[in-house]
Amino acid sequence: MLKPADCTSMAQIRTEIDRLDEELVRLFAERAGYIDRAAEIKAGVDLPARIEARVEEVVQNVRRHADTYGLPPELVEKLWRRLIDWSIAREESKLGPDSLRKG
């Protein structure tokens, strides 16, 4: 593992980006495992997939993390909202659409 400043060629940069991409995919898969478990728990207590207060809490958390790590919070928010939508769709595939769930 090289730090960005230690890379002296595009080959090294590409190797490090590929390494990070694999790690990101591994982390997304781990996150998906928690999403699947959330769907199981929500089914047992009749909660919908989308809980708007939690969506906004997650967005605020990632905006804060983005700021901490020097990334534009607006960009990270856009990415995370897509991830959240994907996660909710994954939950709905197990729970059924929120629109069909009772109140």
Automatic annotation (TrEMBL):
It comes from the Bacteria. Residues 4-95 form the Chorismate mutase domain. Substrate binds at R14, R31, K42, E91. SUPFAM superfamilies: Chorismate mutase II (SSF48600). Its EC number is 5.4.99.5. GO terms for biological process: chorismate metabolic process; salicylic acid biosynthetic process. InterPro entries: Chorismate_II_sf (IPR036263), Chorismate_mutase-related (IPR051331), CM_dom_sf (IPR036979), CM_II_prokaryot (IPR002701), Isochorismate_pyruvate-lyase (IPR008241). GO terms for molecular function: carbon-oxygen lyase activity; chorismate mutase activity. The keyword Acetylation does not apply. Keywords: Isomerase. PANTHER family: CHORISMATE MUTASE. NCBIfam families: CM-like. This is chorismate mutase. It comes from Tabrizicola piscis.
